Structure formats: C-alpha cells, structure tokens
C-alpha cells in the first residue's frame, strides 16, 4: 500500500478543499463513503499527513473532473497518480455509473459571426449550460470546421477533411481542455483516394480509445467508385501508434463526404453499399468489431436497403443502431426513423417514426432522454421535435446546419495522461477552468 502526501502536500490539498466548490464536492463524497469530513480533516491536521492510496482513489474518483484536475497541482506525486491510465479508468467507471442521474449532452456548433467552433456540455433534461470550451488555435480549422467522427468516454474525434486537404485527426476532451493531434497515418496511396474513419473503444479496456482509418483508391472515371478491398489501419491511445490491420474480404464502401458512423455494442457502424462497375447493390450496415478487429455486415430491411446510400444516415439510439431515411421533394420533405430493437437481430428492425420536415427542419442530429429528437434547420438553428405531439421547440442554439452535432456525454480524464505537460504548466491551465 502506497501513501500519498507529506506536510506541504497536505497543506496544499486543504488549500484546494477549502475552496467553496471543492469543499462542497469533498463533503458530498466523504459523506457518501460513510466518513465524516470533520474527522478526516482533524486526524490529518493532528499529524497523520498521509493518504493511503485506496482512500485517495475512493475519494478522488467520485469528484467532478474539474476538481480532480485542480488536485494535480498539489504535488508531482499527486500529478502522476491522477494522470495514470488506471486512475482515469476508475474515475470513468464512476462517472458512467452516475451519469444516469446527471445525464449530459455534448453540443458542437460553428458560429458564423465569430467563425469559431463551440463545444458546450448541457444538462440533458433542462438543456442548461454546464460548461463550454473552444478548440485551441493549434487545432481549430483555419477555414470552416472539422468533421465530428464521434464522441465516446468524454473524448471527441475530429477529422479535418471538410474544408481542408490536411486530413489531420485530433482527439479533444472538452472537459479538461486537452487535445492530442494524432501522428500521420502509415498508409499512403499513390492514386487519388478517399478515407473513412471510425471511432470507439476497446470493450476490454475502457480507456483505450481507438481510431480506425479505411483508405480507398478511387477507381474508374466515376470518382465515387472505389477499388476493393481498401486498406485499413488503427490507432490506439494506449500505444500512441498506427497499426495496419487486414481488410481482406471487405466488399463495401461508404458514401463519399457525407458518411456517418456510430459506436454501439463494442463495434463501429457505417452505412455501406456495394458496387460492381456502374451497378449498385443494396445498402447494408458495415460493422467493425473493436474486440477482434474484424469487419462484418448487418442487413437492412428492404425499405432501407433499396435506397441510395446518400439518403440514409446512421445514429445510436438506446444501445442499438438506428437509420434515418430522408425523402426530399420540392414542396414536401419527410424522414423515417428505423431502429433495430434487438441489436444484431435483423428481424427486429422496425419503423419507429414517420416525420414531416416542417418549420425548416432538415437533418436529424440526436435524441433526448424524454424521447424528443434534435433537428438542425435551414435557419442554422437547433430545435427539439416531439414525435407524439409533433411540436417543434426552438432552443436558442445556432450554428451552421452541417456543423450541429449532439451526443450523449460523460466527463472523463482521458488525454490527461500526456506527461509532456508538467505540473507547473498544468497549473496555468487549471486557472482557466
């Protein structure tokens, strides 16, 4: 058993705890553990200056991310203790367990006036603002905004392929304002190519975030046709490196530019379609399992599989996958929301909602806990639509239509493990939190 804290460290610890915000959080946590804050304080002030590791873990893993980050400035030993992968995993487990009561949403939007990407964490029930953050100038796009590949375990994966040829990939944790620019990929194709990304986590290791990159060589005079199979590689946050994997047998490709993905049940999912010369085959859900790193396929019902892939969009809903089918006409547009009620069971696909796209609604972007659905509008606004009453509620959030992104969110310490940031530098960052 290791103890943390000497006299100076303990005094510094109480400097943080005596702040009103940290004091409230610390009282709540010690009370939850069956400890009296006054007893803990008096015993340590009386001479026992050490915190046993298991006690420290029990306390700190239950504190909000903002408070934990501040405690990294207590000392170097506390910094390295808190920034361990094992501690981040323990804190994440507690955050996920408590997130049902304190559900959060991440909202990303691009403001045309300020020309900045806004990342806001909202209470999923009231939609009140919990905190907001902006990307560092090192990461922010010079023109436009990044594609949000996905969001998982408190980290957002961004891909700069919409308005730039850089094709850089960045992991960004808005809770702790830390980002990581991934190293250049190892697969470099000589001919024109397109890439599709996937983002998720190894289900056997909750802190090992992974980015999958699929690279297709463009083939023939039709630029949307690609040579199969593609090449693939995967980046692991744990190793910090790209590693090539087999894509043999992959006989589908994802729609260019407007592709979407979602991570559910330990696997990444896209809308995939097959082609042979100029003939198109039915669409399906392309799947990549993070555990065994194998590609697969989930069949769609006929009502979806016969649609052009550009009309379909995939989203996560209630621990399963859902697909939106759009029908756009000059004077009337609509969409259908289909959901796989039992993940992996093709027969469980059902049409959950038919929605007339009224009041400028254009694109479905996410779901609320109460069953309402988020839409972006042609007026660059985020609205909430109730399928039961068909009422559209304006929420007061604005951003260009394609920039609006909403996802369930849980605060985490992932990316804090970058030890190139020393304690003194981190302290400067803490002051801005």
CATH class of the largest domain: Mainly Beta
CATH homologous superfamily heading of the largest domain: Kelch-type beta propeller
Enumerate the spans where pLDDT stays under 50 for 5 or more consecutive residues: 32-40, 42-48, 419-425
In terms of DSSP E residues, the strand content is 35-45%
Describe the protein's architecture and organization.
The chain is built from 9 helices and 27 strands. With 433 residues, the protein is an alpha+beta fold. The chain starts with a strand and ends with a helix. The strands form 7 sheets. Strands 14, 15, 16, 17 and 18 form a 5-stranded antiparallel β-sheet that branches. Strands 5-4-3-27 form a 4-stranded antiparallel β-sheet, with no helix packed on it. The protein is globular. 39% of the residues are buried. The longest helix is centred in the N-terminal third of the chain and has 14 residues. The protein folds into 2 domains: 81 residues; 306 residues, 6 Propeller (Neuraminidase), CATH 2.120.10.80. It holds the Pfam family F-box. This is F-box domain-containing protein. It comes from Cuscuta epithymum.
Describe the secondary structure blueprint for this structure.
Blueprint: E1 3-4, H1 7-17, H2 20-32, H3 37-45, E2 51-52, H4 53-60, H5 65-71, H6 76-82, H7 85-98, E3 104-111, E4 116-123, E5 129-134, E6 147-152, E7 155-159, E8 169-173, E9 178-181, E10 193-201, E11 209-217, E12 231-236, E13 241-245, E14 253-254, E15 261-264, E16 267-276, E17 279-289, E18 294-299, H8 302-305, E19 312-317, E20 320-328, E21 333-340, E22 349-356, E23 361-367, E24 373-377, E25 381-386, E26 391-398, E27 405-409, H9 423-431
Antiparallel strand pairs: 1-2, 3-4, 3-27, 4-5, 6-7, 7-8, 8-9, 10-11, 11-12, 12-13, 14-16, 15-16, 16-17, 17-18, 19-20, 20-21, 21-22, 23-24, 24-25, 25-26
